[in-house]
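Recall from the previous chapter that SMILES is a line notation for molecules. Here it describes nicotinamide-adenine-dinucleotide.
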Amino acid sequence: MTQVRIPRRRFLTQSAFAASAAFAMPSIVRASTLKKELHVAAIGVNGMGWSDLSNVGSHPSVKFVGFCDIDASRFDKADGAFPDVPHFADYRQLLSDLGEKIDAVIVATPDHMHAPIAMKAMRLGKHIYCQKPLTHTVWEARQMRLLAEQKKLTTQMGNQIHSNAEYRTGVKLIQDGVIGKIREVHSWVGVQGRQYCNRTDRPADAPVPEGVNWDLWLGAAPARPFAADVYHPFKWRDWQAFGSGAMGDFGCHILDPVFTALELRAPTSIEAANDGTNSEVWPGPETITFEFPGTKHTVGGTLKVIWRDGGLKPPAELAQLPEGVELPGAGSLFIGEGGVMVLPHVAMPLLYPQSKFASFAMPKVEARNHWHDWVDAVLTGQKTTDGFEYAGPLSETVQLGNIAARLPRTKLEWKTETMAITGHENAAALLTKTYRNGFEVEPVG
Ligand SMILES: NC(=O)c1ccc[n+]([C@@H]2O[C@H](COP(=O)([O-])OP(=O)(O)OC[C@H]3O[C@@H](n4cnc5c(N)ncnc54)[C@H](O)[C@@H]3O)[C@@H](O)[C@H]2O)c1
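With both inputs in hand, we obtain:
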């Protein structure tokens, strides 16, 4: 995925806060009390971790104090851009050795290690930028939200498109009532849950490559032997023990403007359909139907949000598309009382029927810098728009979808206050998982 990177030199010509007008400081925050430099450690420094650390590092107030990766061959890009930052293979060592030298931590490892790392860092009072999905399980997402709140930390989830002009414009149109109150939403993505390894069983063992610490890569997950080209890097997504399938990979992106625009918090029921699954990999093409309590932006007492992946799309006629126009490869379709909005992933929203919106003037909504907004918020003590207070419930919903995916054709009922899930005898067990010794996540007391 292409990331926006503001060159450090260009950014330095602007004030650190000029780019953050929306983070205007309240008068009680005096400029003299603000921290001038933020000391950041990055955990997982290649893949999306490189994108995150380069974007965070382009903020003039950021100084990196530690880089951590379990693969010694993957520090090159980070070292090239930010030389002389100490290396670690084990995040626990980094946190204990650097201690008070760290203010904030970027977590960009595979999904199964987000919570063990971020929770440990938050217990030490570190502010967190954590990749999406926030966590690997529903229970972890709840703990992350509670701990960030308890410790009063500044957090941001790494679904950076939240801050793009396209999604922000879509949110504005819905909240301005341009298509009226919303009756139903359909969201979809082309990828499917097990597309990178194309297998349903574990491969034969292979020698661990030089420089890779396989035990640390496994972390909280039950031990299994290394195999080449199926887990590390990137392909771990297919495996239930490490990744979160298509829903986890794209749900926190594509459902994000749906959540923000409609102010959704938690579904009351979830039901999935797919062609069957096993306990190793995520299913192929799937449909997951969420029912939410209605909000001030929706029609009636409940709202259905229907997710599809693996090439499944909503019926095109729902969008009232003009002749010859097709639905985009990924995005959301908001069906309102007074029209329809297609919000592609990632492009400007489109309003239909065309005849009704032919002379509609699209409002100008500025993009924001997702990474710099987090840094500025840490430095000024302000709130982010994608902190764990928001990202926790969004990630809980995504992982509830993944519970339903493992128990297809069963309507699961969810009571968010008590974290109770009913409808299938195995559902409650899937809210959480067991942790390997040394990588536990402790509940928030
Ligand atoms: N926001 C986005 O657009 C976007 C795009 C891609 C990936 N992601 C997310 O970013 C995260 C990483 O995905 P990726 O595609 O970069 O994966 P990847 O496997 O390509 O890269 C992960 C990096 O972390 C390192 N690593 C793995 N386990 C580690 C550990 N325990 N401690 C320290 N380092 C460790 C790996 O060696 C590697 O350098 C995932 O959560 C993924 O969902 C987000």
